[in-house]
Amino acid sequence: MYLKAQGSSGHLSNTLIPHLLYKQAQLITYAAKNTDYDTMQANKKDLSNTKARDNNQQDSMDSSSNRNASSYNRRSFLKDAAILSGAAGLSSVLPFSIQKAFAINADPGTTFMDAEHIILLMQENRSFDHMFGTLQGVRGFNDPRAKRLPSADKVWIQKDKEGKAICPFHIDIEKTKVTWQGGLPHSWDDQSLARNGGKHDHWIIQKTPMTMGHYNRQDVPFYYQLADCFTICDQNFCSSLTGTTPNRLFYWTGNIRPDKSWGSVAAVGNEFAESRDNAYVDWMTFPEVLEDAGVSWRIYQNELWTPHLQPDNKDYWLGNYGDNSIEYVKRHQVKLSAYFRKNGDHTANPALSPSEVHRKYDQLSQKQKNLIDNAFTTNIDDRDEYLKLAPLSYTDDQGKNWTVELPKADIFKKFRADVDQGSLPTVSWLVAPQAFCDHTSSPLYGTWYVSEVLDILTKNPETWKKTILIINYDENDGYFDHIPPFVVPRPGDQDAGKVSEGIDTHSDYHKTDDRPIGLGYRVPMIVASPWSKGGYVNSQLSDHTSVLQFLEHFLTKKTGKAIECPGISSWRRVISSDLTSIFRPYNGEQFPLPAFLNRDQSVIRIRKAKDKPKQLTPSPLTGQQIQLINNNPSFATAVKDMMSSQEKGTRPACALPYQLSVGSKLDKTHKKLQLIFSSYAAIAHTQDESSKKGAPFNMYTGKTFQGELGKTWFYTVSKDSKLTDEIDLTGFVQADNSQASVHLHSDNLEYDLHIDGPNGFYRGLTGSLQDPELDINWLAPDQVQKSTAKNREVVLAFKNREHKALEIVLTDNLYGMGTKTITILASQHKTLHIPLDKQYGWYDFTIRVKGYAPCQRQYAGHIENGESSRTDPFMGMEV
């Protein structure tokens, strides 16, 4: 089935567009027919005074213009978008842009330090689970250690105010118009309140039931295939529990404060920084750090947000959607940029003519000019063509005429020219227009934008051989992610948790609102380069400041200069990766192209989906369904039609630089439980000393502690160190209100603590004051003989302090290793080695002592030995 394409420059009856292109054109036209700019303009500010770009209103794509079309660029976009988006149903087709990037190898013997160009592209508003929760190998919907809520339900079971429960559900981009239904609330208030102090149970209350919706491979095949070929990061968090601008300020400056003191104002909302309202922040940006160090850099976009292009459909296709947050930093003086030098500044009072703007610019130093021109590089040299839209008219298979407007010129013109001419700077940022940024206000055309970036960079293989492309997302919109973000404890509150000495938590806590600023929720990040090929998963914790820390590491070694972003807090430097664990030296390895689904079946599937009704949320779960989900893995047959699950199989996993541990010791006399958190280097890991990191932990209880059900604590331990804390177990004592005078049953108290860390790390501690006198020590690598240190094994040291023998029962929970019983005589020491090679170093087992219920310890996580591994075989349904 075909349709005839026509352009205003002449009848093109001989040009035939395949039916799949027609379906994509229908998608664009639907958006054009079902949007209202007047409504959008009337609702530029949401309840939190955030920008129009973060509203839930759908933006328009006006189709009224009659300008001449540039048929090559516009038809190329339509064709590529049809292939790349799920609307085409071609999840079995590996896009040529990915094929080219995958096929180009680095020179043997090189490492990522041989790169010459770092390209950074941050897209918009998608949580990790929302985009990749079903992807093979990542920590998604098959996570066996998903948090338990205060209700005792798994974190998947989210309830509204009336107690109606919904779990993650598939939103179908082929059969519904979900991609045009707009976004969800994601301001400072509702993002923080959804977290609910770490309990993580107010998602539907603060958002809507649509928060639980997610895509799969059929919906966004391009991104899944990009992950199949390169490296995806499944422990990457946005930086702040809020929206676009604060997170992008972290991305470009390392912070949202002018300094790291608690008293400085934190720009937690978009309204704090908005150039259209003349609201600016002012502190050092990383581009300024690069400028001072003499490192070449540039931020590319078609045009800026600040000029507010008119009519608004121009802004939609041709602006940068306000996603270059350097526009809001005073010292970069956006209103002296090229647009204003050419057109004048009509926002000034009185208005400034072009010559007056030019005079102000001419008075600046060369550094000041560079901070403007490099930050606001646009296609303005393309005369006026770069700000024009042109119509593409076509006739569908029913004989109906349609018109859609697309950019007339190349929105990548300056970037493409710099690549082609060999003048690409060392560090480049790309900022997409709203139509191509993957924001929930637009169809998912960001796939075309990313594909085009790959095409440009791989046109000359010698360029790609020396390039690293980092693609990430600024925040989660309002979409659910099941992993609670790691945050700092309230400064000075000994009951909120603890951090290692030397870590200042003030910068990452909002004093007035009494909330942590971040981390925010997980968001996708994919790193494409010749040194990150192979479909790997990197599970080292990272956030937006990790990109800056990577640049620091890379450029310091390249230039021999100390390059450092002053805004990054000491806490983030401890916990957030510098991304170097993503890369592997290239020594001539050959990586096979990944396998894909059957194309014909996928095409048939979409062709049957002609009507696109609104995406609805599922009916609330019944009590029986909730029980089944709570008692079964997400991939179990018993919950097949209720709970989302992941693709089968494992992936290669990057070696991580640290090994985590949490131990405990009961003090019966003082009724306290001592906790010992530790982070130490993985044996034989080749990472530089400067790249070694500590780790954060979230702790919660399933019981009531000091009158609070599900209380949470937050910890951070520095690298190669230990951190201790004591929990007063009398906090678990429940008052017996049946008596006239309250009696505390302290002799019978039972404690219950759950500790989560990065990459599926977990410790479960339950017991009472009647626990046996038994020490269980997790041996660090330096405590294990060198002959076994590189083995993937758990080594436990037991010491029985009782005056009688103890019978220890160790039960494997997931990996089919069965149960082992050990007898430890009175005062005896015993060491136990548990080999884990068959399950790639993954472990999940529980230790109990016969006769001492409810005492038990659950240990789960992954053993690192400095070498690459595989992702969790239980999540991959391989055990």
Strand content: 15-25%
Radius of gyration: 28 Å
- Write down how many β-strands occur, each being a DSSP E stretch of 2 or more residues: 38
The CATH architecture term of the domain at 110-337 and 375-379 and 410-582 is 3-Layer(aba) Sandwich
What's the CATH class label of the domain at 110-337 and 375-379 and 410-582?
Answer: Alpha Beta
CATH topology call of the domain at 110-337 and 375-379 and 410-582: Alkaline Phosphatase, subunit A
What is the H level of CATH, i.e. the homologous superfamily of the domain at 110-337 and 375-379 and 410-582? Alkaline Phosphatase, subunit A
Q: Structural class of the helix and strand makeup?
A: alpha+beta
Q: Helical amount among residues, as a percent range? A: 10-25%
**Uncertain residue segments:** 1-72, 87-91, 597-611, 736-744
Shape: globular
The side-by-side strand order for the widest beta sheet comes to 14-25-22-29-30-37-36-33-34
How many helix segments? Answer: 22
Distance between the termini: 46 Å
On the 0 to 100 scale, the average pLDDT is 86
- Please describe the biggest sheet, giving its number of strands, its sense, and whether it closes into a barrel: 9 strands, mixed
Oligomer: single chain
GO molecular function, one term: phosphatidylcholine phospholipase C activity
Region (Disordered): 44-70
Biased composition (Basic and acidic residues): 44-56
Biased composition (Low complexity): 57-70
Description:
By secondary structure, the chain is of the alpha+beta class. Among the domains are: 110-337 and 375-379 and 410-582, Alkaline Phosphatase, subunit A (3-Layer(aba) Sandwich); 657-863, no CATH class. It contains 22 helices and 38 strands. A nine-stranded mixed sheet has the order 14-25-22-29-30-37-36-33-34. Strands 9-12-3-13-17-8-18 form a seven-stranded mixed sheet, with helices on both faces. β23 (704-705) and β24 form a beta hairpin. The chain is globular and about 90 Å long. The two termini are 46 Å apart.
